[in-house]
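Re: Re: token formats

Sure, here are both.
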Amino acid sequence: MPSRWLALALALGTVAVSAAAGCSSSSTSSPKPSDAGSSGNFDLDGFSGIDAAEIDLLILPNESFTGFDGLHTFKVPISVYRADTDLKVTLSDSSVADLRPATYADPQADDGKYYVLTAKKAGEVTITATSRGKTVTSKLTVQAYPQARYTAGERRYQNASGADPACASCHQKAGGADHSPTALSSATDQDIASVVTTGVKTSGIPITAVQHTWTVTPTELDGLVTYLRSLPPRGYTEQ
């Protein structure tokens, strides 16, 4: 899900996109309205004094991306905050994606309502959340992927190439940075590809834990984007 600075930006009424695709350790939990505690104010990475009561109904991320190849499963998590018991979440086109409620293994107590979208075909769908007389929307774009892309991506993910290590050697170890759709769903395919080859996150922050400037062929790069999109969203369990 969006990083702490992104959630702050959304709370202030701005929009941004971030991805935690690097090998450096990264928290994927977002601050919630209930993070304000008894004071009623957020304190996010040095920012404080934001009145939690002023934050309206939220759906995060506001725009998501995934793929579909007719063979593998591609899922995207979304979250709705500050909703009441009358919350309704609907899709503009249920032929593009399926929507199911989910739980999220976030150690912070929060008032989030969680869902997982599963792509059913290429296309676009609008997710609408309604509660307390308020309505918010989020957009999901599903790209058509050739099936061969997954195979190429899985091979490079699991195996080293020349002097470059396998992606799994870092990301699958204990404490490895999340680069499942939980962290990457708000990033475009081009953004993810750039992180792989430049070692700079879409937020503009360089990855410093390792030298993350990998050499990959165009086929491997497309494959890695596809493979990462297909990973189960970390921390989410569909109900």
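Second one below.
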Amino acid sequence: MRHRYFVHTQYGVIKIKSLSYTFNDMVQFYSSKQRKVKSDNLTE
């Protein structure tokens, strides 16, 4: 059985096939985004 999930984010809609895969991917994605934002704030 194949499950598809659609994740709605501020960057658009992401279609994924595995919930666990997406969760890990999202964590890395958001953590990298937050790190970039924090570093940008520190430089200002």
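The chain has a mean pLDDT of 66. The two ends are 50 Å apart (CA to CA).
- S.
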